[in-house]
Amino acid sequence: MKTEAVLFDLDGTLVDSLQLIIKTYRLVFAEMNIPWGDDEVVKMIGLPLKDIGRHFAGSQGPFFEELYQRHYLREHDLHTRLFPGTLKILEKLKACGIKLGVVTSKGRAGTDRALTLTGIGSFMDVVVTAHDVSRHKPDPEPLLIALKRLGTAAARSIYVGDSKFDVLAGQRAGTRTLAVTWGLGTREELAQLKPDGLIDRWEELAKYI
Prior knowledge:
By secondary structure, the protein is α/β, with parallel strands linked by helices. It has two domains: 5-16 and 81-208, HAD superfamily/HAD-like (Rossmann fold); 18-78, DNA polymerase, domain 1 (Orthogonal Bundle). The chain is 43% helix and 14% strand. It has nine helices and eight strands. The strands form two sheets. The chain has a six-stranded parallel beta sheet with strand order 5-4-1-6-7-8, sandwiched between helices. A two-stranded antiparallel sheet has the order 2-3. The longest helix has 15 residues, at 61-75. GO terms for molecular function: phosphoglycolate phosphatase activity. InterPro entries: HAD-like_hydrolase_sf, HAD-like_sf, HAD-SF_hydro_IA, HAD_2, HAD_sf, PGP-like_dom2.
């Protein structure tokens, strides 16, 4: 079946920003005197900041979010870059007439800043952020909204991400789902979810188109 659209998660998939995210959470936890427990925070990356703030800070969730945004945006431009090969694969897909989009649990301001800084915003036909939906990944709503805006059927689309939340959202939305191995999830963890494919290098995406 012909692929008409390829949708991507942002952090950990297109953009190498996970170390910045973890560093920012550590700063927030320290300022709010919240114990940092092993991988608990890392396992939640991919969910909206609001949900993570509520989980760890309770009624202080809004302050948690405010602190996070302050630290994150201060160092964003210094620690945000594309993964190797990202720009080239977007150029190839666009040249083939495939619609492209970003579906992320990041907020609108942070998403726009990352897309502008890295120069990939111009490739995207649709961008869906945490501020555009009422239910978030792993719920399929963000993907379904993106597909509706593109006018493309799920069966003719691919969703590419790096976390379990991405794989589950794609499966529930009915897209083919690919997991990259250079982001948040390990190859073993992602393989257990049975995505349609695992990608170790962007060049491998072509065989699924």
